[in-house]
Amino acid sequence: MMSFLAEPKGYTPAEFAVFVESLEWNGWRPKFVTLHNTGVPTLAEWLDSGHAAKQRIEGQRHYERDILHWHSGVRLFVAPNLIWNLCDLREAGVSVSCWNHLTLGIEMIGDFATEAFDAGPGAQVRDNAVAVMAVLHHRLGLRPDQYRVGVSGLHFHKECSRDHHDCPGRNVVKADVVARVLAKMDAFSSAAASPGADHPAAER
User: Fold this and answer.
1) Which of 10, 96, 178, 204 could cross-link with 82 by S-S, CB 3.0 to 4.6 Å?
2) CA angle centred on 45, ends 71 and 127, rounded to 5°
3) Phi, psi at residue 40, to the nearest 5°?
C-alpha cells in the first residue's frame, strides 16, 4: 500500500506541532527516529531561486514513487523555512535499509559533510529539525537519548553499516542534536504545566 501523500504539504514548526497533535498511531508505530541529510540538493542548490521548493519536493516524490517504485519514502524533509511532509507519518516508510520498519526517517536539506550546520541556513535547518524531532518524540512517547542500535534513541543513517552513507554528515554532532531535542522537549513539558497550555504548539 502506497503511503505517499497526493500532494506534499509544507508546515512551519508551529503548524507542524498542531498537525502532529491531530494524528493517531493505531497501527504501525516507530520505535525511534533516524536523521539524514539530502546531500543532493545541497543547501546552496535548494536556495537557488530558479527552482521552487515545492517543485523539488514533488520531484523527490516522483523519483521515489514512480522511478524507484517504493511503497513509501522519507516522511519529512526539513528546509530552512518549512517542514515538508511527503508520506503518511503513521505508515512504515523507506529511508534506511537496516531498520525501515522500525523508524521514522527525517531528511534535512543540505550536505552537512561540507556545509555549515551551526550558522546561516544550516542553523535554520538544524533548529527546524530539532523542533520536528522534539514534537515527534513528545507525541510518540520516545526519547532521543538512551541509544541502543536498532532499538531506541536517535539514530543517524551512518549507523546502518550496510548502507555505507556518511549521513547526516560530519558537521552534525549527535550529542549536540540530542541535547537540543531534550531541551525542546523540556520546554514543552514546562509549557504544558503552565495554566492555559495544552500542547507543544503553544511553544514557539
Assistant:
1) 10
2) 75
3) -125, 120
Task: Name the nearest CA neighbour of 203 among 195, 193, 191, 194.
Answer: 191
Name the residue with cell 561540507. Answer: 114
Q: What is the pLDDT along the chain (204 residues), one digit of tens a residue?
A: 568 888 889 999 999 999 999 999 999 999 999 999 999 889 999 998 777 777 777 777 666 666 666 667 788 999 999 999 988 999 988 889 999 999 999 999 999 999 999 999 999 999 999 999 999 999 999 999 999 999 999 999 999 999 998 999 999 999 999 999 999 999 877 776 766 555 554 343
**Cell numbers 529539525 correspond to what residue?**
129
Torsion (CA) 124, 74, 134, 148 in degrees, nearest 10: -120
Q: In what order do the strands lie in the sheet with 155-156?
A: 4-11, 83-87, 76-78, 103-108, 32-37, 155-156
Structural domain total, the chain:
1
Q: What is the CATH number of the domain that holds 120?
A: 3.40.80.10
The answer to the question of residue 204 being in a domain is no
- Decide if 198 is inside a domain: no
Q: How far is CA 44 from the centre of its chain?
A: 20
